[in-house]
Amino acid sequence: MKVRVAYTVDYEDVPDVVNDLLTKCREQLKRASQFKFNILNLEKTTVEVAELQKDLDTVSAQLEDCLNLSHGYINVQEGIAGGLEAAANSMEEEKNEEDG
Known about the structure:
Elements (H helix, E strand, L loop, with lengths): L13 H20 L8 H58 L1
């Protein structure tokens, strides 16, 4: 059974969290690429295919998590930049009103 876990990290650690998760995905994909399909032992192969599919489902979900984390990271970054720009514009407008 798979569960989704949420935990808190510092904003600047998000890229490292994503990279760590990507490293785990790559390792799982390397293991999956070494799968040997044995047509002469279909009972064992059937079990191994089911395990491989489960592992690939996990990789797929983790890649989706990486995308979601990255989108959130960029959205915050753009929000911070937008907030700084809005503050600078507001300060400029106030200065213009005082001068004008």
